Amino acid sequence: NHGKPRLVRFYQRFPEEIQQQIVRETFHLVLKRDDNICNFLEGGSLIGGSDYKLIYRHYATLYFVFCVDSSESELGILDLIQVFVETLDKCFENVCELDLIFHMDKVHYILQEVVMGGMVLETNMNEIVAQIEAQNRLEKSEGGLSAAPARAVSAVKNINLPEIPRNINIGDLNIKVPNLSQFV
């Protein structure tokens, strides 16, 4: 409600300052509309005017806004927003603004399951949730990114070498290996 974007994804290349201007202009266009008015409006001057449409839904303190070209179906995009919000709600169990802030990586992943490169990939919420759950299982089985350094050290320690090589010769290339005993 204060114009602070919680998730921004552009599928066309814009310089950072233009992106910020587009977000501000979009916020002002959507905010000044009454809740009784339809959820479609022409894009602003920065977005491309009548060639583009802003389609939005207002949930609690959040506005979900998609900017699409004039060939897209407004009702189809409204449905897409609904699927996206319901998927967020299912993945976060009653999604709120803080979920979007503190789980930005997961929110981007969910959006990427729905839309990639500006093209709608999936609109079946059950399919999207299944992919998210599969990703969560994979992350848990790998111990997450924070465990990667520990797994790498463990893997190096578990290498069964009869002795640590001091020199490695590959053709004309001679590599002297430093003393690693302090790390083992």
From TrEMBL:
**What Pfam families does the record point to?**
Clat_adaptor_s
Family membership: Belongs to the adaptor complexes small subunit family.
Provenance organism? Neovison vison (American mink)
Q: Name one GO cellular component term.
A: AP-3 adaptor complex
Per UniProt, the keywords (alphabetical) are:
Cytoplasmic vesicle, Golgi apparatus, Membrane, Protein transport, Transport
Q: Where does it localize?
A: Cytoplasmic vesicle membrane; Golgi apparatus
- Entry keyword Membrane: yes
Stated membrane topology is: Peripheral membrane protein
Instruction: Cite the AP complex mu/sigma subunit domain residue spans from the record.
Output: 1-138
Q: What top-level branch of life does the organism fall under? A: Eukaryota
**The name this protein goes by in its record:** AP-3 complex subunit sigma-2
- Taxonomy of the source species: Eukaryota, Metazoa, Chordata, Craniata, Vertebrata
